[in-house]
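This part of the workshop introduces the protein records we will be handling. Backbone structure tokens are a discrete shorthand for how the chain folds in space. Once this layout is familiar, the rest of the handout is easier to follow. The record below serves as our worked example for the rest of this section.
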Amino acid sequence: MKESDKNIEQLIEKMMAEDKLQSPSIDFTSKIMANVQALEEKKLTVYKPLISKPIWVSIGIAVALLVIYISLFSVSENNIEIEQVGKLYSDKIANSFSGIHFSKNIMYAILIVPFMILIQVGILKNYFDKKYEL
């Protein structure tokens, strides 16, 4: 080692000997834990649905009243019966899709994908319920 390195080392040792070790206060841990708990309380998110239950109930009642009103008090201006209307629309739909042919793979995908989406929605709902559980 060089002479200057030895001098620097001695200087550092002298400074370390003069400096006292700092120790935390007695209630240091309790202060830190209080700050941590305060931060956790701030981060806590409360699940709040976008549409509240009273709004859902009022929407349901409004739809039910609308259906009852239409079924009881509507006057048919045309003498077309409901079966004829259904037949007209089903014929139009059948004619518009008559030229389309799907392969077996596409049909399987069309049948299976909605079920897979429903399963994923259930799994994600459980995941987020557990994550935001109080």
Remarks:
- The helical segments are 3-18, 28-43, 53-73, 82-96, 104-131.
- The chain has five helices and no strands.
